[in-house]
Please model this.
Amino acid sequence: MTRPATARGGSRASADRLARLLNLVPYLLARPGIEIAEAAGDLGVTERQLREDLELLWVCGLPGYGPGDLIDMAFDGDRVTITYDAGIDRPLRLTPDEALALVVALRMLAETPGVANRDAIERALAKIEDAAGDLVGAPVAVRLPGDTRRVEALRAAVEGGRALRITYYTAARDETTERVVDPLRMLMVGGRAYVEAWCRRAEAVRLFRADRIDAITELDEPAAVPPQAVPHDRTEGVFRPSPDLPLITLRIGRGERWITEYYPCERVEAGDGDQWLVSLRVTDLGWARRFVLGLGPDVTVVAPVELAEQVRATASAALDAYAVPAPVTRLPGDDQVALAPGAPSGDPAGAGRTQ
Model:
């Protein structure tokens, strides 16, 4: 689900106001007794907005947030003077922990697939390491989890505009296929690296998880991305439920309520006792069958009937496999029989003796 435009606009407005507040204190410190109208003109805001910013500054300050901790100011008619700045006028000095955290964060950002302008990140990192070298100490190396060489090969193909032949495991169908893809971009979603590409086999844009790519071969041909191949909006995650996907309904107990937090659900209703009725979209019923079989005994398939029958048939087949009697071996010269290796010990009725 895409966030409403108002939410994005609100986030930008909050960021703009924060930047304005951070600039406001040193500006006023350099101009004690300045008229509010003049300050508003210099800062490019209305007098009303400036007064609202000053009211907000009154409740900002250092931890403790009591007398002597908060920013303070004095008004003389339409003039304002900062009387206590809570240290905002001091130059920034990083502690060793802060410097190390900043270096690690920038190195992590530089290693993240899909991040543009890595050169700018490296330049900023070099400046910080040069300035905080004594604080950080030894050089810092950061590696994201997963197969770094695979991610680097995908990133090189994206940046070089080369087509790839990949061997890919599709978890939803539990199958491995070989495809030729034309990479569009690398991205990181939920802590995992993906390559978004035009799949010539599916004739559509597909998202391939890097750790599910078993083999990569860069082809001697440029990527041939058709005009209709447009990257999808992934701001809300990889899976995007749509009305054309199968809808399943489960009855779950208290121990399985985590499903409603981990998966996007269309409907959650209270049932009898501690039970809930949960409806969600899935990529296909094959994935849903494996998903349900991996849950605990407090889950029942309500709909569709086809999924309930698949789960019942698979569970029955598994139980039948356990019910097959173990083969026996007759011991020479004796009427005793020995159970095959791995068979349960003991002498169940009729199993340990010949008739």
